[in-house]
Amino acid sequence: MTTGYDESATARWVAEPSKRAGRSEFERDRARVLHSAGLRRLAAKTQVVTAGSADFPRTRLTHSLECAQIGRELGREIGCDPDLVDAACLAHDIGHSPFGHNGESALNELAAIAGGFEGNAQSLRLLTRLEPKVAGAGLNLTRATLDATLKYPWFSISLGGRPPLTSPRPGGPIPPDPSWEGRPPGIPPILGENLPPQTPLAPLGGEEPAGTPGKFGVYAEDAEVFAWIRAGAPAGRPCLEAQVMDWADDVAYSVHDLEDGLHAGLITFKNLNSLAERAVVSQTTATTYCGDDVSVAELTEVLDSLLALDIWPASYDGGPETAAALKNLTSELIGRFCIAAQQATLAAHPAAVPSAAVPSAAVPSAAVPSAAVPSAAVPSAAVPSAAHPAVAANDHPADPVFLSSSSGATNPQGHLTRYAANLIVPRQQRLECALLKGITAHYVMTRAGVVEAQARERELLAELAFAIERGAPRTLDPLLRPSWNAAETDAARRRVVIDQVASLTDTSAIAWHHRLCAPGAP
To answer: Which residues of 223-253 are buried (b: 16+ CB within 10 A; e: fewer)?
Structure first.
C-alpha cells in the first residue's frame, strides 16, 4: 500500500492482473502518461509562441515537464505522493488542442451541439477513453491520479454539457451533483463560494479563453467514469494533489512565459521599470485575471514590491552573464511561489508536518520567510476577496469525507493527502503570479499580427473539422473509426470529429488541412 493512500485511491476502472513487485501504483501511472502518444504530441502544440517558430520558447510538452518537476517537489514537501502529483502534472494539458487556447475556443464553437469543448475535459476523455492502453479504459490510471488531474471537477453549464439524471450504468442512475445547478461559470463550490474565479474570461489568452461559458472538467458522455473517480469526494472540490498540480501549472507558465518574453525581446526590463508601463500591466491583470474586489491600486503596490526584490537583472542582452541572471530570476520566483504555499499549508496543519518538509536554511533569497506567511491564507482555487480573505483548510471538521480513511486523512507519518487539506497560497503570492501573467498578456499576447494569425488558425480548424466530417470515417484515424461507426446521433458524430481535430499538433493540423481542404482535395 502506498503511504497515505488506501485501496480505493489505488483502484483502477478496469481491474488488472498483478504486476511485478517493486513499483508503486502511482509509479506505474506516471510511466503510462510519460510513454503516451498524447504527451508526445504536446511537443508540437503551442504554449504561447507558435510551436516551431523558434527554438527557445516553451511548447506544451516542455511546459508539462517543468510543471511536473515543480509539482512533484511541492507535493512531496507537504506529504503527497510525488509520483502521483508528477503524473497529474504531466497529464494536465494532454487533451489540449492545436494552437493553444485559441484552438480551444475554435473547437468549443464547433462542439456546441455536443456540449462544447474544453481542454481539461478533453484531457480526462483522453486518459480514460482515447489513449490506447487498456480496452475501454484509456490508460486505466488509478482513481487518485485521475482525480488529481481534475482542476475543475464539474460539468459544463452549457446546453448538452450535463448528463441526464438517469444512466444505463449497472449501478443505477448517476445521482445529481449539487454543483451542476445555478453556479456562476468557473467557480467551484466549497472553495469558491464567495470568491472570484482564479482566471475569469480572458480575451488575451489567459487560463479561460474568451467565448466559453466557463471552465469545466468533464463532458456529459464521460459521466460514468467521472462518478467513479469522484466517489466519496466533496462536490466540486479538487483534491489536494489537484490543487498542487494547479498551482504548479500557474507557477510554471507565469514564470516561464515571462522568461520566454524577455528572451525574445518582447518584454524588457526598461519597460518594467517604467511607472506608466506598470500601471498598464496592473490594469491588464485586474481586467484579465482578477475579480472586481482586487483593485488596480493593490496590484500596482504588489507589482512595485515584487520588482523591488534584488533578484531582477538590470538588463538582458542574451550574453552569458545576463542569460545566467535571467535563469536565476526564474529559479528565485519559482522558489518564492512554492515555498510560500508550502509554509502556509503546513502552518495550517502543524501536527501533519512531515519531517522532510521543514524548510531548510537554504531558502532562496526571494522566498517568503515563515514569519511573513499570513494566518489567513488562500486555497489554491481562487484569488482572495477583500471581504473573504481566506477559506481555512479545516473549514469542514465534521465532514465525514474528511474523517474517513478513504478520503486520505493524514496518516501516522503526518502526510497530507487527498481531502485532508487544501493547498493554501498567500494572497501576496497569488497576486504576484497573476501580475506575471499580466506582463505576458500585455507585451506578448497583444503584439502586432497576433489577432490576424489567431483568426486564421480558427478558420483553419473549422474548415478542417467540416472536411473530416464530410469524409468520415475514411478521413478519421483508424483509432477513431469504430467510435464514428457506433455513434447514433449528429452530436455523437461531431464529438468524434472534435476528438480527431483535438488530437492533432499545430503542424499536423496544417498538413491535414492542406490534404483535405486544398483545391482538388478528395
So the answer is: bbbbbebbeebbbbbbbbbbbbbbbbbbbbb
